[in-house]
């Protein structure tokens, strides 16, 4: 892994991923909206920034050229297929052997075997309807984006984040295949560690074509699982 592209580099998750990637000595190309370029000022001299919308295929084609890995922040902004357009561009245009890592939340299910609490389902349903009503966010489009990724034969990993908090790193989060598994019960991960998991996945072949649901390594449920093992 020498050169990686971070799509959505200026957001909170994106900036943590830039730092982790630089820490590993990777050459970094970041894509972010023109209006957000200044958010990457601290990295300005160490990364290449390509301004543009993440679902703009020309932007993505330029950004992923020569990359061994692509880290994509999937967020379903608006109601014009932003998330699925972004995922499709990466799937179509990234170099054939590149590792493709995508972020999303626990609400995405690969095989329908995830078990969600009533509160979680209610929150997703209410939030999803309200956001769609105001044309701000279309959760169904993130579902569609992931459906396309799961159907692809590329070397993808879809990292499903729990609720997030800020704070110092607790180390690499632990993961499980299904929400509802006991180890995930605490439903909390530090954002810096979500980013760490994304970047570490680039070189972890065991995660190819997996959709790990993650939780903080020092969260109570992860510690209970560790003590029991
Ligand atoms: N927040 C949570 O609690 C949570 C929980 C689980 C999983 N996740 C997953 O984590 C990832 C990002 O999480 P995050 O909360 O840390 O967010 P974030 O990193 O701040 O990412 C938000 C991204 O969306 C972009 N963005 C914001 N407004 C936009 C708009 N109107 N049009 C186009 N792009 C826009 C941001 O770019 P700019 O810099 O240009 O604004 C940034 O790249 C997502 O994949 C999400 O599904 C989040």
Automatic annotation (TrEMBL):
InterPro entries: NAD(P)-bd_dom, NAD(P)-bd_dom_sf, Polyketide_Oxido-like. Pfam families: NAD_binding_10. Residues 8-204 form the NAD(P)-binding domain. GO terms for molecular function: biliverdin reductase [NAD(P)H] activity; riboflavin reductase (NADPH) activity. It comes from the Bacteria. PANTHER family: FLAVIN REDUCTASE (NADPH). This is Short-chain dehydrogenase. It comes from Solemya pervernicosa gill symbiont.
């Amino acid at each position: 892994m020498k050169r990686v592209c971070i799509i959505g580099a200026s957001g909170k998750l994106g900036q943590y991923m830039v730092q982790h990637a630089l820490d590993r000595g990777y050459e970094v190309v970041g894509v972010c909206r023109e209006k957000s370029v200044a958010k990457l000022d601290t990295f300005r001299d160490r990364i290449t920034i390509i301004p543009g919308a993440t679902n703009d295929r020309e932007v993505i084609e330029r950004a992923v050229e020569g990359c061994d890995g692509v880290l994509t922040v999937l967020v379903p902004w608006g109601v014009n297929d932003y998330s699925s357009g972004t995922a499709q561009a990466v799937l179509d245009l990234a170099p054939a052997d590149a590792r493709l890592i995508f972020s999303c939340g626990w609400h995405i299910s690969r095989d329908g075997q995830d078990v969600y609490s009533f509160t979680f389902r209610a929150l997703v349903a209410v939030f999803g309807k309200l956001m769609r009503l105001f044309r701000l966010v279309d959760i169904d489009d993130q579902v569609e984006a992931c459906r396309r990724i799961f159907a692809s034969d590329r070397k993808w990993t879809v990292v499903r984040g729990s609720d997030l908090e800020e704070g110092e790193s607790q180390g690499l989060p632990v993961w499980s295949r299904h929400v509802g598994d006991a180890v995930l019960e605490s439903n909390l991960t530090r954002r810096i560690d979500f980013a760490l998991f994304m970047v570490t996945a680039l070189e972890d072949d065991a995660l190819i074509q997996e959709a790990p649901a993650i939780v903080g390594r020092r969260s109570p449920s992860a510690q209970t699982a560790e003590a029991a093992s």
